[in-house]
């Protein structure tokens, strides 16, 4: 079995020790090479060990994980960030499709993140890191970007360009104003949690809409929305009043 050759970079000794123990006990697909306590020592460890995977703290005494990655370019290893960031920053990670572990690290979360890293296409990471950096410095939905990964392509799209999303069990289709469609192997619930703060509303068990791209609401045929791209989206009866209230609030601002 080929194991992921791994380095831990964190400025807190107890975090390095705990992570090392978790990796050895829980991750049979990992070979721990070395630990480092900051940007300078981390870069040296990467240069010496040529790892497959780096568990990387964001805030360290001599700089950030981002500083390290900029100095380590080209990045030929996979990264899982270790962070104590607030919810806003965590949202930026989700939009960028970059794995992170919240401190204190949960062993099950570590195992899942390592397993995902094992499957990750390395060419994606420079794009993902760029999106993360932009999203951490962007307020609101305008300009916010999200990574949508299909089996063949990594799409970088603006959140404001999404018209609506449609669920198909464990898949989600994204529809855009220009007629583009992207099918992603993730559930609608995951995207609802990510997008609801940016004007998206679940109008039906199978549909999540961008309220800013609604053209009109038709009461006929059980009720449906006409989007700016002319598509029609059904509205569940139990969602109508809440939808109209939210729609009115947006049009008044």
Short summary of the structure?
By secondary structure, this protein is α/β, with parallel strands linked by helices. Helix content is 35%, strand content 31%. The protein has 2 domains: 4-135, Rossmann fold (3-Layer(aba) Sandwich); 148-252, OB fold (Dihydrolipoamide Acetyltransferase, E2P), CATH 2.40.50.
Q: What count of structural domains?
A: 2
Estimated radius of gyration: 21 Å
Q: What is the CATH homology-level superfamily of the largest domain?
A: Response regulator
Shape: elongated
Averaged pLDDT: 87
DSSP strand tally:
17
CATH class of the largest domain: Alpha Beta
Bin the helical content. 25-40%
Please characterize this protein's 3D structure.
The chain is α/β, with parallel strands linked by helices and about 250 residues long. It has helices spanning about 15-25, 40-50, 65-70, 85-95, 105-120, 125-135, 190-195, 240-250; strands at about 5-10, 30-35, 55, 60, 65, 80-85, 100, 145-150, 155-160, 160-170, 170-175, 180-185, 200-205, 205-210, 215-220, 225, 230-235. The protein folds into two domains: about 5-135, Rossmann fold (3-Layer(aba) Sandwich); about 150-250, Beta Barrel (OB fold (Dihydrolipoamide Acetyltransferase, E2P)). It is about 35% helix and about 30% strand. Strand 16 and strand 17 (about 230-235) form a beta hairpin. The mean pLDDT is about 85.
